[in-house]
Specification:
four-stranded antiparallel beta sheet; elongated; 6 helices; alpha+beta
Length: about 180
């Protein structure tokens, strides 16, 4: 009477489980690495984009960014990755990334583009709770008009392709008064 598996039976069982389990292991391994790379890239883009928007906010607070009063859309990729921009209006960003932090953050991202833009900020009466709209409609309209005249919507957008060539993007929007209140 046989009480154990023979070596041949054991080798056959290992071979069958290996062949059956290889695709499952491969799927898990490839998906896990892809997710890790996506998280790494997303964290890099998030960090750099937040650094740009914080620097823009600081420049506006110090009233060193008169161009924020106008509508524009500028490519800031060279400022971030090299600390060198051809645009004199973006020198403040070059100073932020002269330490090569942008280049280090984007070292694994082969194709990316970052843009900084400003557009008019509009606010409607619908943004105000209904209970506050009827109190003094003239004053409400005056306040909304003042906000629209003084404020801009500033946006930093970064798009990048991962190793699978899938396009991702990340936007940070700052609504800021760029003209002092009179």
């Amino acid at each position: 009477m046989k009480k154990a598996f023979s070596l041949v039976e054991l080798l056959v069982a290992v071979a069958v489980f290996s062949i059956a389990g290889l695709p499952i292991f491969s799927l898990y391994f490839n998906t896990g690495l892809g997710q890790q790379k996506l998280i790494r890239d997303f964290l890099a883009v998030t960090t750099v984009t937040e650094k740009v928007i914080n620097r823009v906010n600081q420049e506006i607070e110090e009233q060193n960014l008169p161009m924020a009063r106008f509508n524009f859309d500028k490519n800031i990729s060279n400022s971030i990755t090299k600390g060198q921009s051809q645009d004199p209006d973006l020198k403040f960003l070059d100073n932020s990334f002269v330490d090569k932090s942008g280049e280090a953050a984007f070292r694994y991202i082969q194709h990316s583009e970052s843009r900084f833009s400003t557009t008019p900020f509009t606010i409607t009466k619908g943004s105000v709770p209904a209970s506050h709209r009827s109190n003094n409609p003239e004053l409400l309209q005056e306040v909304l008009t003042s906000i629209e005249k003084r404020s801009k919507l500033l946006e930093v957008t970064t798009q990048w392709r991962d190793t699978s060539r899938i396009l991702h993007d990340f936007n940070v929007i700052l609504i800021k008064a760029v003209v002092p209140e009179s």
